Amino acid sequence: xxxxxxxxxxxxxxxxEVVDEPLKQTFKNMxxxxxxxxxxxxxxxxxxxxxxxxxxxxxxxxxxxQNEIDNILAKPIIPTDLYKAIRDSQLIGLxxxxxxxxxxxxxxxxxxxxDKASVHYYVQSHIxxxxxxxxxxxxxxxKNHERPISTCIKVxxxxxxxxxxxxxxxxxxxxxxxDDLNYPEKTETYYVVNAPYVFSxxxxxxxxxxxxxxxxxxxxxxxCGRDELLKxxxxxxxxxxxxxxxxxxxxxxxxxxxTENCFSSDxxxxxxxxxxxxxxxxxxxxxxxxxxxxxxxxxxEPDPKDAKIAETIETELHRLEDLDGLDKLL
Length: 330
Hints:
CATH architecture of the largest domain: 3-Layer(aba) Sandwich
Pfam families: CRAL_TRIO, CRAL_TRIO_N
Largest sheet: 5 strands, mixed
Distance between the termini: 60 Å
Protein name: CRAL-TRIO domain-containing protein
Helix content: 40-55%
Strand content: 5-15%
Number of strands: 5
Number of helices: 12
Shape: globular
Strand order of the largest sheet: 1-2-3-4-5
Number of domains: 2
Radius of gyration: 20 Å
């Protein structure tokens, strides 16, 4: 017989009281004053099995200590031109907040190329945005709404998704595994918009492989999803690619200024993030890189189920690629 959620959290708390001091310190940086909510996230990720959740969290804390994740917000990507190149090829940004106060994270899945730097820079950039979200954005949102806010909404733009996405599976798998193991249950809902045929074909074969908990979070919307998204956020918080049918997710906004495009390095979110990292680095000069170089983070081994999903996507893309080639010959 399983224990109640409340009892599970109490058991988890007791186990965490005896972990080593370095792990307690990095856990404090993680939970930002909301330890119970953090424990609950790890319990949800392990179906409320206390021992599995405890192992997951301890592994996560060890990963943070060994890879100096607590210091990653003092490790700027330099020079600035390289940072801008990464922003142009790893399309992600904060477009606003939902009506309930959750950050709205926009992701340009289809047009992200990940071809301007090594995988280590993209992983560094991704973790920095995770940490900035968790250590700066969410605590401010929690304070403004006078309640714990520990999750976000993600709007995934599939504009431009092509069979060449096969080349990105490796890096996307690395980033996904880091999120699954170290930032579990941080996304309330995934909204998929502007989905082309190639996504629909992959989704059909991948959906049955996902856990029911994950499937419930994913909503595939018609077109740019504007009308459905307006039910959960104000128009001003819509990502730029959702504000008009067919607008697409452009690296250089066709439907407004660069500052309206939340993927652009000129957008206020990325300006604030980069300035914050530079300020943190300046306040701790001993952490400044001596020369240009990415902050290497150890890549965790993917869960066998996640590896199976990546393999399935790769197989389906190969199949579609073969069919596309055959169509061109006929």
